[in-house]
Amino acid sequence: MHLSYQMVLAQLMLGLNNGAFYAILSLGLAVIFGLLNIINFAHGAFYMLGAFVALIGYTKLGPLLGMPDFHMNYWAALLISPLVVGLLGVLIEKTMLKRLYKVDHLYGLLLTFGLALILQGIFTNYFNVSGTSYNGKPEILRGVVNLKFMMFPTYRLWSIGLSLGVCFVTWFAIERTKLGSYLRAGTENPGLVQAFGVNVPLMITLTYGFGVGLAAFAGVVAAPIYSVSPIMGSEMIITVFAVVVIGGMGSIMGSIWTGLSLGMLEGLTKVIYPPAANTVIFFMMILVLLIKPAGLFGKEQ
Asked: Mind listing the pLDDT tens digit for each residue in 141-175?
């Protein structure tokens, strides 16, 4: 097959779009694991919940309020959905996860895996598994942009820029601010930090809420591109876990760079050898684990 540079660049852009979602989802996982030492297998379910809050707000909120013409628009969903799902995360952390911090990581993994199955099962009972279209995309983000080598959807370009912006702000807040220093210190030596007047339990709870809020935010951004489905999270979470393992469990910057890079690698593979596109990320994970078990950006224990 003859490969033109336009075809390669087009697939790299589409891969970058997928990579942006990998980055923001793996970032939420990295925040939760790096600061709380919880392997949050329910992250995909929170991603799904974020998309459904946007969908339900757009299609059903008006009739429920007695205003058939009212819709929760896309911009409101970007703010409300992470807040709603983040509050659910806070409730889960306060009632369940806080009991598991001093035991083996496996217990947290099993609990969050069970939560993911429960949430997926609830939404499967009420919504179409094959997916529902979200039609709340703003008019300003419709259409295409001429990138010279291809006509690229405006919304996909926006989703890349927005995801990268959120990733950078999150990295900066955790790695370069006093609040981030308190978070890191509070997980390594909570007794000492609490002695300085910092409410460590509250800080941990809000961190978990923020991490799952990131997943919900990604769900809202993804809703106009992919079908909103009860299984959309389970389809994404395995790939995102592979991204986190390759980047290094708990590494914020590792998750961002690895997510973007693997998204583009996946896109490039679709041009060179399409049958391998769905497995190239897992092949890379095996290769990295054999050479550097802590991940590319991770620290050896």
From this structure: 999 999 888 899 999 999 999 999 999 999 998 88
Nearest to 193 by CA among 35, 299, 75: 35
Cβ(281)–Cβ(231) below 8 Å: no
SS3 208: helix
Q: State the DSSP H helix or E strand holding residue 40, giving kind and residue range, or none if neither.
A: none
Q: Model pTM greater than 0.85? A: yes
219 SS3 class = helix
Distance of CA 103 to the CA centre of its chain: 26
Rounded to the nearest 10 degrees, the angle between the axes of helix 5-36 and helix 200-222 is 160
3-state secondary structure of 132: strand
Give the Cα separation of 145 and 155 in Å (integer). 9
Q: What SS3 state is found at 65?
A: coil
d(CA 179, CA 87): 20
> How much is the CA Rg of the chain, to the nearest whole Å?
20
